[in-house]
Amino acid sequence: MLTLDFLITSLIVVLIPGTGVVFTLSTGLSAGKRASVYAALGCTAGIVPHLMASILGLSAILHTSALAFQGLKFVGVAYLLYLAYATWRDRSALAVTDAPVTRSAAHIMLRACLLNVLNPKLTIFFLAFLPQFITPGGPAASLQMLTLSAVFMFMTFAVFVIYGLLANIFRTAVIQSPGVQNWLRRGFAATFAALGLHLAFAQR
Predict the structure, then answer these.
(1) Beta carbons within 10 angstroms of residue 172's beta carbon
(2) Is residue 96 one of the residues assigned to a domain?
(3) Nearest CA to 48 among 157, 139, 140?
(4) Contact, 121 vs 202, CB < 8 A?
């Protein structure tokens, strides 16, 4: 169950940049290290519904129902495009001051959580990913999946926190230039838009 193959594969999956990583980096750059931890926590929480759906077999609905999949997918696309627009328009997001930008922890966590909750591909991914590491003849399959899910979530949180902290270091060291600030803001906005378009054309 908790094999080296599972740990290595999970680490690779978590390290691959996606919407959660982009949001955590953006938050670490714009609002400081504490906010980046909230973002990492929100992104991790956003995984829970997908893991539970996989464990309960609900992903079969998304896999077989084109309407359910398309509906959730385009809500996610709309949210990513909204984030792209909001990031592009937020002229103060990357302003460097003596203190990090103050943002509500609940607000940051909610935005981060929604990023993952509204991605239907995650449910199908976990349904295909976790069962590969179930040990036949071991504890109940559901218990094994819960254990694997907990380990995956812990790794996600730890890696995202590191991403956020590195972004905060980058923030204090490099983005003193208004030109760099504008470049970063537009870069993150374009990335959110690109991820939204990628999800829009995703197939089940």
Answers:
(1) 13
(2) no
(3) 157
(4) yes
In a domain, 17, yes or no: no
How far apart (Å, rounded) are the C-alpha atoms in residues 80 and 114?
Answer: 10
Q: Cα separation of 56 and 119, whole Å?
A: 18
Instruction: Identify whether the C-beta of residue 175 lies closer than 8 Å to the C-beta of residue 96.
Output: yes
CA 176/CA 137 separation, integer angstroms: 58
Please state, rounded to an integer, the average pLDDT across all residues of the chain: 76
CB contact at 8 A, 112 and 131: no
> Tens digits of per-residue pLDDT, 18-55?
788 888 988 888 788 889 999 999 999 998 888 887 77
**Residue 128 lies in domain:** 4-10+23-89+101-200
In a domain, 95, yes or no: no
- Single pTM value for the model: 0.70
Residue 112 forms part of a structural domain: yes
HSE value, Cβ hemisphere, 13 Å, CA-based, for 75: 13
> CA–CA separation, 16 vs 134, rounded Å?
23
- The DSSP code for 102 is P
CA dist 94 and 188 (Å) reads 11
Report the domain count for the chain: 1
Which residues touch 15 (CB under 8 Å, ≥6 apart)?
Answer: 159
DSSP state of 201: T
Residues 51, 149 contacting (CB under 8 angstroms): yes
Closest of 158, 148, 106 to residue 127, by C-alpha:
148
